[in-house]
Specification:
Chain lengths: 159, 137
């Protein structure tokens, strides 16, 4: 990512003139956007993205003969999610800063904080149903914020 | 360095710490604290089981070490210390991952290679993280 850090060369708008770098960033961001969409779809099927379906998947449901999720399975899930969220957000924010050094700090703070709290609430989900609804809200929030960053980068790239 | 970069790197370090904590937690859930159960965890695993654990770890640990150690060169030119640290981290990560395949019923003592290399990997990663944090100031 250091290749993106050309701090000295930053101007107010910091346009990317190298056509190869422009294409690289385009394909990387499109891939990350696709990943974010598919990740949401995967979680929708694995855990569920509504309070009712997520509660059934995590705590189980006797009426539907659903067993609660095992804690080590949940922890494995969180462990893998932290890595993907960490790399996705790091790449997106680095590109965002490279293209627009004057970006709002709040967007970067919010996207990272929601991603971190998503993982924390999923670990705590089996203890209190409140954390399940919190997980659903935070999960959707960090994906939406990342999508906003991604689309903003694409808009800046071709402006 | 632009302030927003610093913010992103700080959050990256927090998430990396969370990754280590959940990783150790998982290891303790599967293998617990005793040396015997820790050894049995690897001895009882089939080659496929070991591959299922090693493959994603090899990929992710390689990427994470690359990102983490490349931050060390952000503010100044590389010094021999950083090169040695990077090389050691990569070597220890490889030893830690591949030593799992060597632990069998007859070679249970090799569990020490796994324990020491994993411990050293964590220690050196924390050292690199603190060095990155110091450079952000």
């Amino acid at each position: 990512m250091q290749f993106l850090d050309k701090s000295k060369a930053f101007s107010k708008s910091s346009p990317i003139t190298n056509p190869l770098l422009k294409k690289l960033i385009l394909f990387l961001v499109v891939t990350l956007l696709l990943y974010l969409g598919l990740d949401a779809l995967l979680h929708y099927h694995q855990i569920g993205l509504t309070f009712r379906t997520a509660t059934h998947s995590i705590l189980g449901n006797e009426e539907e003969f659903l067993d609660p999720i095992l804690f080590d399975t949940l922890l494995e899930h969180v462990h893998a999610d932290i890595l993907s969220a960490m790399i996705t957000l790091m790449l997106l924010t680095t590109i965002l800063v490279r293209l627009n050094p004057n970006s709002k700090q709040k967007l970067v703070h919010l996207s990272f904080i929601t991603a971190i709290l998503t993982q924390v609430s999923l670990i705590l989900a089996p203890t209190l149903p409140l954390f399940i609804s919190l997980w659903v809200i935070l999960f959707i929030s960090w994906h939406l914020l990342s999508l906003i960053i991604g689309f903003f980068v694409l808009w800046k790239l071709f402006k | 360095m632009i302030n927003l970069y610093r913010i992103g790197i700080r959050y990256f370090l927090i998430m990396l710490l969370m990754l280590f904590v959940t990783g150790i937690w998982l290891l303790l859930l599967h293998a617990s604290f005793s040396l015997e159960s820790f050894t049995n965890y690897y001895v009882e695993k089939s080659i496929l089981g070991l591959l299922e654990v090693t493959t994603p770890h090899l990929f992710s640990m390689g990427i994470v070490i690359f990102i983490l150690t490349h931050f060390l060169s952000l503010n100044k030119k590389n010094s021999p210390f950083e090169s040695k640290l990077t090389l050691t981290l990569f070597s220890i990560m490889l030893i830690s991952n591949f030593s799992s395949f060597l632990i069998t019923q007859e070679t249970t003592y090799l569990i020490w290679i796994k324990i020491i290399s994993t411990f050293l990997f964590l220690l050196l990663s924390l050292l690199s993280m603190s060095l990155v944090l110091l450079r952000l100031k």
